[in-house]
Amino acid sequence: MKKIIIYLLVCSFAVIQADEEVHKVVYDLTTSKLETFEKVVLSAIAMNKTHYENKFEELEVSVVIHGGAYRFFVKDLVNTIYKDDLRLLKKQESIKKHIELMSDTYDVEFLMCRVGMLKNKLDVNNIMDFVKIVPNSTIGLIDKQNDGFAYLPVGD
After folding, report:
1. How far is 14 from 129, CA to CA, in rounded Å?
2. CA triplet 67, 47, 57: central angle to 5 degrees?
3. Which of 102, 90, 17 lies closest to 61 in space, CA to CA?
4. Contact status, residue 134 vs residue 64, Cβ threshold 8 Å
5. Listed residue (34, 18, 118, 21) closest to 69, CA to CA
6. Which class would CATH give 21-154?
7. Contact (CB, 8 A) for 30 and 155
8. What is the residue-level pLDDT of the chain in tens, covering all 156 positions?
9. How far apart are CA 104 and CA 56, in angstroms?
10. Could you tell me where the beta strands, DSSP code E, fall in 6-134?
């Protein structure tokens, strides 16, 4: 009888643990291509989050921004090196709303590399408010991977 009770307790604990499973992914976002950004960040992350929610599991998502990807997280492109990107200028308001939705609704964490931000002469006040600044992209990626995040590169 004791063996049965212990077995049931162990099985119950395993079921509880399975229900609380958290999957983690960090996107290494360097793409400057609008199509890639829309496909991977704006669409795929939402689909992936929904997939895990349908399984009653959680997907924790972080995005480390560097390379050509800074352009998508600037509040106002006019006074930046991206001011001549006409396709981005045309879609900027829509993209800003989508990214903000990702942050608010899907709890996606956005981390921006300070070194590249300064190199590209981007003012911290011109970066979307929910974006966190990290010392550099390598530190952001190391920290996330050491916290158990799967690594997914998103480049050109």
Report:
1. 40
2. 110
3. 102
4. yes
5. 34
6. alpha beta
7. yes
8. 555 545 444 455 444 444 568 999 999 999 999 999 999 888 999 999 999 999 999 999 999 999 999 999 999 999 899 999 999 999 999 999 999 999 998 999 999 999 999 999 999 999 999 999 999 999 999 999 999 999 999 988
9. 20
10. 22-29, 58-65, 109-113, 132-134
